[in-house]
Design goal:
The structure holds two protein chains of two kinds. Chain A has four helices and eight strands. By secondary structure, chain A is of the alpha/beta class. Chain B folds into two domains: 158 residues, 3-Layer(aba) Sandwich (Rossmann fold), CATH 3.40.50.1370; 150 residues, Aspartate/ornithine carbamoyltransferase (Rossmann fold, 3-Layer(aba) Sandwich), CATH 3.40.50.1370. Chain B is globular and about 55 Å long. The chains are: A alpha/beta, B alpha/beta.
Chain lengths: 183, 327
């Protein structure tokens, strides 16, 4: 299948750097902010953003991870069932400014599930959303507050984010499937 | 007894990266692989996180129906399944033999067909006849979970036992696991023999000769039979004590309860023969002062209460994996 690189390692670094600055700007230097990554690739992205915020501001922002398996609206898998990953909230999120972090924003359904999952852990002051790629095709009224790259795509295309922590290298690629489908 | 290449049959596992789950029904553990059990325990870890929250509930099985059908008395198993189903947001309906049409003479198959017609996704059943869940599984579209059938199997008890051991010792590979008591009539023992062996433990069965199996032959994996409790307990890592049913004495299999207590009760003196970090387990309900001394049942090495708590997490994981599968 034909594959085209959209973001290189250097592009990803710049995008995350900009998002980190935007988070600091919109949240009084990062006070009261908790970064929560959505499994799988949102988790290392959240950690990288926290490292960048620490570098720019000298403040440590707590990082959590969220598995949304139990909150999906499409429970019913052909075999096999998904591997459920660890949900880990580093701190009580009640009254905090939570920033959800994911790799790709597409239909919005994962974010809908993540909002439900998050609110079961407490009532944050606000929830914001940071994504590396927004590829459009929303099916729910959801938008991101911080976007690395807006990437208009066709449904039959697949947007693949690869990260060193999970895939061995940093890259965003678009893959054209011949017969329909998508991510 | 079978001699098997254990290392080949049961390869070591690591943290699951892909799911090996194949089950539509949970009838016994004999058809489980090591990877499937480890995958189930990994899923149960996530359930434990939910149970540790202030609001112990997720909407995962919303719109799914779990029916519990108990033709034998049970407190903890039925309650545990019902709590598990409710924590996942499923609707739960309970049937007992006393309240079902079984008292009017309706057959088991007719009853489960009616339940099926009314709509159920998972049917949890306990029945005095060994094999009854297998018959039911052939008749219904829902997933069937065996919550105890006769003397045959109690797979969810064995799974929660293995999960409890895993949380203390990391696993059972190479461990010596002693099961003490009425092995002959125990479905808990039978399912644990499968589960412990598949996960790599050496099983030792201990009890009065009249309550030990004699003719299992090829039906179960190899286990050491050791009627002498001191020898059985030497260097044990895991000790499972079974409930002694008083009917066994009336049935002529035991001279007296007093003699059983003298020869087979797990007391502090005997427990000292096992490894210092050996776990003391019991499927409940406990006859304190008969098969186990109260100070051992409530002692530092006892994980009996933990077994009960872990039962909910393991059953949540099972219900999730069964109800989510596309049938």
């Amino acid at each position: 299948m034909p594959e085209k690189t959209i973001l290189t390692e250097e592009d990803i670094r710049r995008s995350l750097s900009r998002i980190a600055h935007e988070i600091i700007e919109h949240n009084r230097g990062g006070q009261g902010v908790v970064l929560v990554g959505i499994h799988t690739r949102g988790v290392p992205l959240a950690q990288r953003l926290a490292n960048l915020i620490a570098e720019f501001e000298g403040s440590q922002v707590p990082v959590g991870s969220l598995d949304i398996s139990f909150y999906r609206d499409d429970l019913s898998w052909r075999d096999p069932p998904p591997v459920v990953r660890r949900t880990d909230m580093p701190t009580d999120i009640a009254g905090k400014r939570v920033i959800l972090v994911d790799d790709v924003l597409y239909t919005g359904r994962s974010i809908r599930a993540a909002l439900d999952a998050l609110i079961d852990h407490g009532r944050p002051e606000s929830i914001q959303l940071a994504v590396l790629v927004d590829r459009g095709h929303r099916e729910l009224p959801i938008r991101a507050d911080y976007v690395g790259k807006n990437l208009p795509s066709a449904r039959r295309e697949e947007v693949q984010v690869r990260l060193k922590e999970t895939d061995g290298r940093d890259e965003v690629a678009i893959i054209t499937n011949r017969e329909g489908g998508g991510q | 007894m079978r001699i098997r290449e254990q290392s080949q049959l049961y390869p070591p596992i690591t943290k699951p990266t892909a799911s090996p789950w194949q089950h539509r029904h949970i009838l016994d553990l004999d058809d489980f692989s090591r990877q499937e059990m480890e995958f189930l325990f990994h899923t149960a870890d996530a359930m434990k996180e939910i149970l540790g929250r202030e609001i112990k509930r997720v909407p995962t099985l919303r719109g799914k129906t779990v029916v519990t059908m108990f033709y034998e008395p049970s407190t903890r198993t039925r309650l545990s399944f019902e709590m598990a189903a409710k924590s996942l947001g499923a609707d739960v309906t309970s049937i007992t033999a006393a309240t079902s049409s079984a008292v009017k003479g309706e057959s088991l198959v007719d009853t489960v067909r009616t339940i099926q017609a009314l709509g159920s996704d998972v049917l949890v059943m306990r029945h005095p006849c060994s094999g009854a869940p297998y018959l039911v599984a052939q008749q219904v579209a829902s997933s069937v979970v065996n919550a105890g059938d006769g003397w045959h199997a109690h797979p969810t008890q064995a799974l929660l036992d293995l999960y409890t051991i895993r949380s203390h010792h990391g696993g059972v590979e190479g461990a010596k696991a002693v099961i003490i008591g009425d092995i002959l009539h125990s479905r808990v023992a039978r399912s644990n023999i499968w589960g412990l062996t598949i996960m790599g433990a050496q099983v030792v069965l201990c009890g009065p000769p009249t309550l030990l199996p004699r003719f299992w032959g090829q039906a179960y994996p190899q286990a050491i039979i050791e009627p002498d409790i001191e020898a059985a307990l030497a260097d044990a890592d895991i000790i499972m004590v079974l409930r002694l049913q008083r009917e066994r004495q009336q049935g002529g299999l035991l001279p007296s309860i007093e003699e059983y207590v003298r020869l087979y009760q797990l007391d502090e003196r005997r427990l000292a023969l096992a490894k210092p970090d050996a776990l003391v387990m019991h499927p409940g309900p406990v006859n304190e002062g008969i098969e186990i001394a109260p100070e051992v049942a409530h002692g530092a090495q006892s994980v009996i209460e933990e077994q009960v708590a872990n039962g909910v997490a393991v059953r949540m994981a099972l219900l999730y994996l069964l109800a989510g599968g596309a049938h």
